[in-house]
Every structure is written in C-alpha cells, then in structure tokens.
Amino acid sequence: MSADVAVAVVIPNWNGRDWLPECLDSIAAQTLAPADVVVVDNGSTDGSLDVLAAREPPVRTLALGRNTGFAHAANRGLEASDAELVAMVNTDVVLEPDWLERMVAALHAHPEAASVASKMVDLKDPGVLYDAGDFLRRDGACEQRGRFERDYPELDEPGEAFSACAGAALYRRDAVLAAGGFPERYFAYLEDVDLGLRLQLRGWTCRYEPAVARHAGGGTSERLERPLLAWVERNTLLLVARWFPLRWAPYVMYRQAGWAWHALRGRRLRSHLEGAAAAFRELPAVLRERRADPPDRARLAQVIPPRSISRWRRRPSAPRRAAATSR
Length: 327
Hints:
The protein has a single domain (1-327), classed as Alpha-Beta Complex (Spore Coat Polysaccharide Biosynthesis Protein SpsA, Chain A). It is built from 10 helices and 12 strands. The chain has helices at residues 20-28, 48-53, 70-80, 99-109, 173-178, 191-201, 228-243, 249-265, 269-292, 297-303; strands at residues 7-13, 36-41, 60-63, 85-89, 93-95, 113-122, 129-131, 134-136, 142-144, 159-161, 168-172, 205-215. Strands 1, 2, 3, 4, 5, 6, 7, 10, 11 and 12 form a 10-stranded mixed β-sheet that branches. A two-stranded antiparallel ribbon has the order 8-9. Strand 6 (113-122) and strand 7 (129-131) form a beta hairpin. Residues 316-326 have low confidence and may be disordered.
C-alpha cells in the first residue's frame, strides 16, 4: 500500500445535528486530509440536512430518507466511495488531529490487517476509556477493552484486537465488501463485531492504534424503537446462531442465564426478553444462511480460543452487554 493511498471518511448520521459541526470540524483539522467525506443520513428529522447544506466547504451527503440502521448506512457509504481505505466515524465523535494519519500508518505497517481500532475516550472526560478494541468470547459476550476504566499506560501501546468498534475505525474497503459488509440484519449494535469475525475467518487481522477519538457515548440510542439492552440481546443471539458451533452452547447458556438474572435484579428483564423474542423471530432466516454457508469450525476455534481475551489485554473490562454499547 502506498503512503499516498486515498482515504475516505464515512459518517452515518441519524438526528445528530447537535454533534455534527464539531465532528466535521475535527475531520477538517486532520493532519492527513481525507480525499472524501460522506455523511449518510438515515432520515433525520432534527435539521441535520440543513446543517450539512450550510457547511463550507460543502460535505457530500447521501440522504436515505428513513432510518435504515447503522449497518445499512455504513454499507451505502462504503459503496459510495472509491477510496482504498475508509474510516467509519460516529456523529458524536471528535477526532484528535493526528487520528487519521496514525490509523493509516497502522494499516500501512500491517498489510495482514483489514481494520484498525482506535482509543475511544469519553468526550467530556478524556481520562475515562470508552473502547480500546473489541474482543469476542465463546459465551457470546463481546468485551470492550477498558470500558469505563481510567486510562492506563498499557493502552498507549499499539497491538492487536479482535475487531474494531465502528464508532471510530479504519477499514480496507475491498476486504469489507468482499466479506459482505456490515450485516444489515443487525440494524444497530454488534454489526461491527460480526464483521470483525468474518474478516478474521477470511484470514485478516485487526490492529489497535492508540489514536484518540473522543466519544459522547449513547448518542441517539435512546430514540430507537426498542431499548439498547434489547438490541444487544437480540444481536448477540443472532451472532451466536449464525457462527458458533453447537459444542459452545453450554458457555452461551451460562452467560444468557447470568444476563437474565442481572436483568431481573436491575428491573430490565422486559427489555432482555424483548430482545430474545426479536432474535427468535429472525432465527429461521439466520439458520438458512448458516446452512448455505456453514462456519469453519476449525478456524473459529483459532480466532476465538478458550482464553481469547488474555491474548490481547492485561486488565479485565466490562462485557459490552453489561454496559451501554458503542454508538
């Protein structure tokens, strides 16, 4: 990959008017200027399109007219660009000026990698970590390294991750499209983990680069049609049903029982069950897809080993399910 490879930035947006100006300003201030910036608007009703129309210099906008979900918007942005590398950036993210330059350098140094995760910290308190790479476990839980911890020195060192949080990540466009893009069935949450798994199964790796992205966290999730907890439960079960071998079922059942118990104690059991019921309705389609393209069990065991988290992190972090998840 040449040092002057074209890089684009794609920003899926849904009612993010309050965050868009600062996000776009931070992209305009990058030490490595992107060749293209595309905002994919998911039918915003808060005046986001007016904000975008008034930007100088103009920002390329792809208006979808309705909320089709993060995954669908991200895919349309990927298709709309012809850049070799594409950064996905949430509306409620502010990038440090060297973010894009460092992320591109990480892929340049690692041709075996298809994606780069960045160091996401809290927008208001940058000393609090939000995500430093995602890691998938055999019980179906996805962990965000460092979640809600105070920042610590180990995370200033580049390394590996399982997958990148698409709130602030860089991808090889062709690799993502060859893997099927972000799975649109998920609508929102964990679609980046599913994509990361498919890239791993194809032989790609994911890098972690401590380039800083400040993230508001949660963003517009409270306005979605079902609670965040329900989305994550639904999509966890869909990911497990699509990819995991049957012999891992005891781990998944144990984790599900624990989550149900915590949901009951936290008076959130209704949201948990709503997500499970939504997953159940999707199961026939997911199982048909699994039968048509069976997962490679040997490769799965390699990319998700029994103690997979310990390969990449030194400190424990909260499961993605246990907290508000990315975006």
